[in-house]
Amino acid sequence: DLRKELSPANYILPVAFFTLVCIALSSMFFSLGDLFGYLINSTEEWTKPRIGENTFFVGPFIGEDNAYLQKQSLAVLTWAFTGAYLWSAFSIVRRLSKADLTPVVFYNSGFRILFACAVAMSFAFMAKYVDVFGDGVTADAFRSNLPAIAFIAGILPDNFFSYMKKRIRVIFSGGDVNTNELSLRHVEGMSQMHRERLAEEGIDNAQNLAEASLIQLIIRTPFEARQLLDWIGQAKLLCYMKGDIDKAHKVGIRSVYDFLTSDKVDDDGKINMMMMQELGASTGINTPIFVVVANQVREDIGINALKNFRDKLNGKDDDEDVLTEKSERHPEEMENPT
Fold first, then answer.
1. Are 127 and 150 in contact (CB under 8 A)?
2. What is the DSSP letter of 134?
């Protein structure tokens, strides 16, 4: 029951978790004397445990002779936390304005801040030994821009983590079709915020979106039916075309619905082979690939049903399906959201 999920009592633990993460990290950054102990206050003798020697922050190989690395670590964590915090705050305000602020948002925001700090720290240490930006970028140039890099890593930790995997191919060997060819970044009109919202519903790639329930997405997300139908159509095409999706986009094929238009299918319901050949010649994709995709799309009952529903919505018929009304209302306003 979505109404029970959105009850005020369910927000206590998520908000408390997010608050504790922010307080813990921000207090660590501003307590410089406690963090680095005698390295900052070198004239004083500290009898209490020195947090600056904690291997979690600086690693066991850093000693007094490498104090600048400790300061670098603090700077990286501070700027990464700032970027992640600002992004999370913007996301919370945006979701609040759309009446879509669920309890899981605060859990995701807290873990995002922790993940961003870890990614930024790993990236900073990795850059000392790995050519992360290619030739022409010196260590001094990288160090001078490290605060800005850490700030961006805090805002986009997933992007930085993917970039790290590409640069360190020895550790992260092999391609991942889910994060590359089936990435939701190939879906036109879908922003980072949209991808994060869909991830809350367990949709991490195009295959998940292609097989998702339209009704459930309409009920549980703030997106309108037309937008979801377009995204699902693009995701289904991405599952078919994979690495050739950009070539298909260049000739105007952006979703599976484009294979059901009158110029692709003859009056008798058969595929227009001449059109398939022209598409193959224009894109450099083998014609049989377009023929196979067109056949599968034409015979898929689910895709045809989505296409008919989409045409009905775009035609603004008087007898539009009840899903149209639900897509424009928040779940809390529905009498029976389940």
1. no
2. -
Decide: 92 and 105 in contact? Cβ < 8 Å: yes
Cα–Cα dist 232/255, whole Å? 8
Q: Compute the residue count for the chain.
A: 338
Alpha carbons 307 and 236: distance in angstroms, whole number: 12
CA distance 306 to 304: 5
Q: What is the pLDDT of residues 223-277, one digit of tens each?
A: 999 999 999 999 999 999 888 888 888 888 889 998 888 677 666 667 778 888 8
SS3 call for 265: strand
Cβ distance 305 to 236 under 8 Å? no
Return all residues near 338 (Cβ < 8 A) that are at least 6 apart. Answer: 1, 2
Label residue 192 by pLDDT band (50, 70, 90).
Answer: confident
Q: What's the CA gap between 337 and 302, in Å, rounded?
A: 23
* Separation between Cα atoms, residue 66 and residue 73, nearest integer Å: 11
- pLDDT digit string, tens, across residues 297-313: 888 899 989 999 998 88
| pLDDT, mean over the chain | 76
Under DSSP, the state recorded for 271 is B
**CB-based burial, 214-225: b 16+ in 10 Å, e otherwise:** beebbbbbbbeb
How far apart CA 250 and CA 262 sit, in angstroms, is 20
